[in-house]
Amino acid sequence: MNIEKESKILFIGDSVTDVGRDYQSYPGSFDSLGNGYVALISQALTAIYPGHLLKVMNKGINGNRVTDLAERWQTDVLDLQPDYVSILIGINDVWRFFDQPFQHPTDLVSLNLFEETYQQLIDQTKAKVKGIFLLSPFMFETNLEDPMFKQLKQYQAVVKMLAEKNELQFIDLQVVVDKYLDKQSSYILSGDRVHPNQNGHFLIANALLKEMGFEFGK
Question: N or C: which end of the chain has fewer CB within 10 A?
Fold first, then answer.
């Protein structure tokens, strides 16, 4: 297990992380975890590693983009003094170009703004934590010519580049999803190509747990 004992692990992102969490509940409490991959990870760590006393916190908010994370980074991340931070953001930064294309250009998150803002979050955090996990945004899509998917690929590349540049752990969730879609339909994991169902959330949780060095046999 690569996570030190008695650590606080904070997950932040958009609706893929949020998944119905209770915003009013105390960070780390059952209702605050939502019903997605964060809750699954918390359950696995609690059940299999009872002696580690790990606290999991969920700070995902529906619809968030990287610029939204920046606005709440101090209160929702730094003030909670986590030991590890997991960031999954980017799908809405791309999606808004397609579902709200008539917004003023300054209201859309360009690739450059995405990179600059993401780097700022890393700069504010890296020296204060034991580890940062950067997760690639993803789609449950097999059509490589899909316009939104093609644009998302650029944002995925930025996340990977930032992980390498800052020597952070990178989890390519698109690779995880693509491997599954080689054998099964995307509808097994998602109804809209973006939001995972419980099968999809288990896939994400499993990828993260592997990166943490989790072993079911413990």
Answer: C
**Per the domain annotation, does 64 fall within a domain?**
yes
Q: What is the 3-state secondary structure (H, E, C) of 25-46?
A: CCCCCHHHHCCCHHHHHHHHHH
Tokens of 216: 């079911």
CATH at residue 201? 3.40.50.1110
Has residue 3 been placed in a domain?
Answer: no
Q: Is 51 in contact with 9 (CB distance < 8 Å)?
A: no
Query: What positions carry a catalytic annotation?
Result: 15, 192, 195
d(CA 126, CA 31): 28
Domain count, the chain: 1
User: pLDDT digit string (tens) for 170-216?
Assistant: 999 999 999 999 999 999 999 999 999 999 999 999 999 999 999 98
Q: Which amino acid is at 92?
A: N
- Spatial separation of the C-alpha atoms in residues 171 and 146, rounded to whole Å: 23
Q: Would the pTM of this model clear 0.85, i.e. be above it?
A: yes
Let me know: does 160 contact 170? Beta carbons within 8 Å: yes
Range of the domain at 83: 8-211
49 token code pair:
């590693």
